[in-house]
Each structure stands twice: as structure tokens, then as C-alpha cells.
Amino acid sequence: MVAVDCIDCAADASVVNAVNEGIEIARDIKSLRRPWLMISVNDDEDLHFRKAEFDPEDCPADCSRPCETVCPANAIAFHQNTTLGISNGAGTPRMLKDGVITERCYGCGRCFPVCPYDKIREVTYVRDAIATADLMKRDDVDAIEIHTSGRQTSLFKELWSALGDSVGYLRLIAVSLPNAGDSTISTMNEIFSIMKPNLQSFNLWQLDGRPMSGDIGRGATKESIAFAVQMANARVRPPGFLQLAGGTNAYTIDGLKKEGLFQTPSVNKYSDNATSTNGSANSSQALIGGVAYGGYARKIVGRALRAMQSQHGVAACVEDHPQHLLVALEEALALVGPFKFL
């Protein structure tokens, strides 16, 4: 059965609990190997760690509300006391207020430039290292992804030191960084030298091409493909798997294939050993080992949730209508299918 390797979420105990609950619900519907759960942190200000914020009472009554239209996560709402299918912790739906639904906002920033009255603010945050270290010691957290700007390594070193021996509890350490041009490889080598003394797990480099844009269209993945090509041409790279992110969508794999940087695993039915196919002879040993789908995956899930709410009301919970979750699950499996046959 095809399955994803990791599910990434915020480094927050309540979010980790919710994701684990969701995983088990999905596995009840369809038999799946349990994916690893990965928590995300940042060492500095980062696009992935921000929220939109505004006071809806300041919005003029005649505003056309383009922010609500442009939001890909349906995180801006003017519902006037509508209940939402997000639990308040006691198992009951919570009342939805006008404005930004914080739980849904993932900081894409598309609402900022469209507000005709410049009312929307950007709120950034950095995850607490001590609280993160405690989360990493839980037996239901398998990996961590550290977002770094790549501009300097001092902040990464400070965070890594604060995480302490908690890194020893994990199966995978991932570092997500943008393309900084010629300095990217040297930055990666510096970061690896910081991690190496107490790195006891797999490590992975997430190449963040065009953050949070995968749902826009075919062109959004060009920067992630270009990042992959740059890594392929680099003579000296630090150890670790490479994974694409930022603008990744249904067109990313085709782009990798055109560059000879993608191979799919196939298993001979008479053997337990996997063999690589579908790559050129000089394909850099299938340089890119995986793809992270963020905005595009949200788009898939969002379609299923909107279909459910149109049939059963905005307060409907997906747990009560698993047929809609199954639709999203089947589409997600088709997306990751080219990577593995498990």
C-alpha cells in the first residue's frame, strides 16, 4: 500500500494530539502503514511561522472582502456567529467569530496585498526551544524539521544547543532552507558540522523553492526544480537525503523526470529486493529522495471539506462523514504513489 513517510505539523502539544488522532481515523478507514509524525520549528523569522491578523470591526461595511476570496485555506470568514467543526477541547463545536480563523491560517500572505484598506497585519513567532525539546521526547513524535533562513548559522547553533539531548529520541532530523545561490552549499556544510557531534538519526535537507505556492499552478514548481538542479551540479554536498518543497504540486515529479533527477522504486514480484527504474543512466543516483506537499495537499483536503460542508453544513465533522475523508485520502495516495510501492 502506498503511503507518506512523514506528516508535518506545528510543535504544539494540542496539534500533535490532533494529528495523531487524525492518523488513526484515516487508518480505520483504509489500511495504511503509520507515517512518522514530524514537528516544525524555526530559528528566526520565517514565512512558515506567521499568521494574518485584523480586527473585523475596523472593516468598512461596503468592503468587497477580497481577503476572504483569495485565502486558499478558507481561514478568513464573515459568518456572524456560525459554529465551526473545530472542537474546543470538550468535544463540542466552537463558535466562529468574524476575521481570521487562526487554526486554519498558515501564513501564505496572499491576503496582505489585496486588502483595499491595508487593515491586515502579519504576526510572526518563533517556537519555544524548551517546549519543543519536551515534545521531542514523546513516543508519538518521530522527527523534527528546523526552518532556517540560511543567512547565518549562529541562530541555528543556538537552537540546536537548546534542544540538547532531545534530538537523540528522534528518527529523523530535517533542515529546511531556501536557495541562497552560491552560498547554499557552504551554509549546509556549516549546519551539518553543528549537528554532527550529537546526530544519531537520519538527516534530511528540505530544499524550499517557492514557499507555500504549490496550489497556484504548474509554474509554481519551477523554482523547486531549479533548486534540485543546483544541488545536482554541486560537487560537494553534506550527507543527508534531499527533499523538495516550496511550490511542489502534481507537476513536480514530471519536472524532476525531465532533469533526470527522479527514479521510482519497483519491486520484482519474485524478490524482496527493490530495484530502481524510470531514471536515466546518469540520473545522479535519484538525487531527490522525496517531495513535501504543503499548500497543494491543503488544497486537496480543502476540496473534500468544502464538499462535506456544502452537503452537511459548516459545523459538520469529518469523523461523522468518513466518505469525504476517503475522497481526500485517495487523491493524496495518487499524489505520493509515484514514489513508492509498499
TrEMBL record:
The keyword Ligase does not apply. InterPro entries: 4Fe4S_Fe-S-bd (IPR017896), 4Fe4S_Fe_S_CS (IPR017900), Fe-S-bd_prot_LdpA_C (IPR021039), LdpA_Fe-S-bd (IPR057431), PSI_iron-sulfur_center (IPR050157). GO terms for molecular function: 4 iron, 4 sulfur cluster binding; metal ion binding. PROSITE patterns: 4FE4S_FER_1 (PS00198), 4FE4S_FER_2 (PS51379). It comes from the Eukaryota. Keywords: 4Fe-4S, Iron, Iron-sulfur, Metal-binding. Residues 50-81, 96-125 form the 4Fe-4S ferredoxin-type domain. Pfam families: LdpA_C, LdpA_Fe-S-bd. This is 4Fe-4S ferredoxin - iron-sulfur binding protein. It comes from Senna tora. The lineage of its organism: Eukaryota, Viridiplantae, Streptophyta, Embryophyta, Tracheophyta.
